[in-house]
Design goal:
There is one protein chain. The protein contains four helices and two strands; from the N terminus they run αββααα. By secondary structure, the protein is α+β, with helices and mostly antiparallel strands. The protein has one domain. A hairpin with a 6-residue loop joins strand 1 and strand 2. The radius of gyration is 14 Å and the shape is globular.
Length: 104
């Protein structure tokens, strides 16, 4: 959780905007320690960054239209819940259902 209220708007843009598909560096900043601090950096193609975030349990990235229906169905079929992960039903309801490719 971060103290920046605009963070969710920025992430929604990052996941939904075609312009974001040209990103090669992802930085996550926080000011929770009383100063601006970059706490996470990912580099690579847009899709590599999304897969990296997904691997770390950021299931929100599955709402990005850069994931095809086939990729979403493959994720669902291969999902194995670990520790505090949400259930696959929660992931589908909260993220995958928001991907326009899933409803096709």
């Amino acid at each position: 959780m971060t103290s920046w209220s605009d963070n969710q708007k920025a992430k929604a843009w990052f996941l939904q905007s075609p312009e974001a598909w040209f990103v090669h560096r992802y930085e996550f900043w926080t000011c929770d320690n009383d100063f601006d601090q970059c706490i996470e950096v990912r580099e690579g193609s847009y899709k590599e960054i999304l897969f990296s975030l997904l691997k770390n349990g950021d299931y929100e990235v599955l709402s990005s239209p850069s994931f095809s229906k086939a990729e979403l169905l493959e994720f669902i079929a291969q999902f194995k819940r670990v520790d505090d992960d949400p259930s696959i039903e929660e992931i589908i309801e909260n993220y995958i259902d928001n991907n326009p490719n899933y409803s096709e």
